[in-house]
Design a protein that fits this description.
The mean pLDDT is 98. By secondary structure, the chain is α/β, with parallel strands linked by helices. Helices cover 44% and strands 16% of the residues. Helix 5 runs parallel beside helix 6 and helix 11 packs across helix 12 (317-324). It binds nicotinamide-adenine-dinucleotide (NAD) and thymidine-5'-diphosphate (TYD).
Length: 339
Amino acid sequence: MNIIVTGGAGFIGGNFCHYMTKKYPDDTILCIDKLTYAGNLETLEPIMDMPNFKFFKTDITDREAIYKIFKEEKPDIVINFAAETHVDRSIDDPEVFLNTNIIGTGVLLDACREFGIKRYHQVSTDEVYGDLPLDRPDMFFTETTPIHTSSPYSAAKASADLIVQAYTRTFGMPCTISRCSNNYGPYQFPEKFIPLIISNAMNDKKIPLYGKGDNVRDWLYVKDHCIAIDLIIRNGKEGEIYNIGGHNEKNNLEVVKTVLAGLGKSEELINFVSDRPGHDRRYAIDPTKIHGELGWLPETPFEEGIKKTIKWYLDNAKWWENIIKGEYKNYYEKMYGNR
Ligand code: NAD
Ligand code: TYD
């Protein structure tokens, strides 16, 4: 099979390309990525020369270029990871989120209609459900929880989901959607919380913790997300949404403390800063559906995953040092300089 993976030079898409090229040597992974600030060819270096991997530096909003790839490569499956993904950037400048996350999804769906595919899979997020109260640990997001977004990022992702559902119903397209909780693991861009803690702590820099540090996220090791998507594209039912996550809730203060302890660094590095506007309080996934229908459950507990992640960042310091010494310096100053 020919499988298009968009956003494959990013964090989760990159891990997915590694996973799929090794697991399915007879399938071809066609990676499409614009290489924005978040895309990094070094992430793909270990698989770039594999015979079942091809890379296209292309913007998913570029209709002509996308149609050309579909015409020439005849994909069987399309998995859309490509997106602008950082909530803080979406608060600073929403426009590119609307273009890539909404228009880009529309272009891919149109290409699928035009050329025909067996499955289109949209990689979405639990953030489309908004947030849950901190004092209701009995509440979880299910696939029928209403969409109720908070940030320009989550609103753009929710819009894309609605477009996928409209194409499924109106044009009978074979689509699935997955909504996953926060991922962590190798190759995550250092602006996101866990790699930011690691890279700052390694340089003995303060770690900005928003508000009181009591916001809760449901952390999932990235390989478990890759396994879930692979199951959905093969065995998931057309037209369905699958939540992915697994009762790994931690508040942000607990996460910082765990990572600092893992690195042997002092908790004095923690710096409480002003909160993110509209900051979602708690995310928590109910994975009953994907467990019941596809047999998926997370394999890596947080304690093990965080150790592996810390080790990966220590062993691959060149990967993130190259990032933080470049344009990232200006971003960091803009976001945290006066906070
Ligand atoms: P990322 O920011 O690390 O990577 C995004 C990739 O998309 C980059 O390689 C970037 O170059 C590429 N890209 C951006 N705009 C593009 C465009 N116009 N055309 C082609 N490529 C473009 O993101 P990630 O954390 O790997 O997230 C991947 C997907 O998973 C996203 O759709 C995101 O919404 C979703 N998701 C992420 C998480 C998480 O915790 N990171 C959780 C749930 C869902
Ligand atoms: P993030 O990795 O940006 O993911 P998301 O906002 O999509 O869940 O942030 C995870 C949590 O960490 C979130 O509650 C915000 C918080 N956070 C901080 O406290 N400080 C930071 O510098 C960052 C980037 C995030």
